Amino acid sequence: MRKIAWIIAAALGLSLAGCGGGGSGGSNSGTNSNTSINAPGGGSSPATSSGTGSSSNVLAVDASAVPTAVGPGNTIAVTVSQTGIHNQPMVSVTICTDSTNATANCATIPNVIVDTASFGLRLVRSAIPAATFSALAPELAQPSGLPLAECALFGSGYAWGSVHYADVALSGEIAQKVPIHVIGDSALTVAAPTECQVGRPLVTTTDIGANGILGIGVSPNDCGMACQNAAVSAFYYTNAGTATSVLVTGQITNPVTKFGQDNNGVILEMGQISDSGSATAQGTLVFGIDTQANNVLNGTSATLIRTNGNGDFASSYGGTTLTKTFFDSGSTVLFFPDLTIPIDSASGYYIPTTTVGRTSTLVATSPASVSLGFNIANGATLNASGNYAFNNLGIYLSRQFDFGMPFFYGRHVYYGISGKASTGGGTGPYVAYVSS
């Protein structure tokens, strides 16, 4: 299970780096085992052994794909604004009593982060109205029959909460009886197990910078067979604090997989923004791939990349192969290792005197490999601008390449779910993107 990892990014605060993009995994819900923490633990200090990037300075042309119009039932509006932290894509999620086709005791929760590198819905208890929460049935661990709890580990702390069933509605799509993680549930009176207490507790919306996280990456669930076959430390517990195994069907679940249709993947489409930053940004989250006229992958000439069960693939940067490379809307910046760009020693931000251009080579199925250009501007200047959406913000991090939110502006980015097929992508897991 790749739990969510949060990154302290100095003045930017918390940055979600996703359950996806790390470790090993299978190719379908019956076999996948997401058991390693994916994301960056922070802007690590540069080291001469960590690799360098090209010092050439050819600026990349900004991607220019336009988001699909919001309106059809398989679309939902995505907004980046001053709510929460910079570069956080937010949607509204409706939850209801389970198995009612999303008709009973419903509440719409705004400001939920769209995270394409994690799997499952996690909501802060205080963001759920009492009447709705009381109508959500707790999941019971087996064979004990005690209510189930989960510990989610983060770079800056840990989230301890209960597991409940809910119907989840996203625009016109409904997923019934989805196990969701309720963070900071006061009814869970037992403290988080010692192995979970890494850093500070993350309990409130202020701690997280949002009301929750919608994990819609390539895996159907957040652990897989590892947690079904054994009680894995620092993951699932009873409400008495005892580690327990959980069937795949009872694990925190990517709600897209439980839609009646449009359930084989998602497309995150964000409009392009100014290179100096923008106060807001808008986009569209589209459900399904090659299932309707507005979610076509087949015939688009998209770059298609096969991934492992966590959404990882390989890239080459500055002569170094980075096997942990992933597209992650839950990360607010581009995280990668480049010693040729000036770095702020306190925050890890890249702070070039003028904007620099760089290129990463992605190992893809179609074509065999592709060069992806991007730009990095001065992080201190961008942060001082008062804007909230940035397409060229980066932080030093060794040994991996996390293409965070700056990558998504001006692109349609596809996520094919493990074990699900589309005409244009074949059977997942895979990612793909178009830039114009």
TrEMBL record:
InterPro entries: DUF3443. Keywords: Signal. Residues 29-53 have a biased composition (Low complexity). It holds the Pfam family DUF3443. Residues 1-20 form the signal peptide. The keyword Signal applies. It comes from the Bacteria. Transmembrane segments: none annotated. Residues 24-53 are annotated as: Disordered. This is DUF3443 family protein. It comes from Paraburkholderia madseniana.
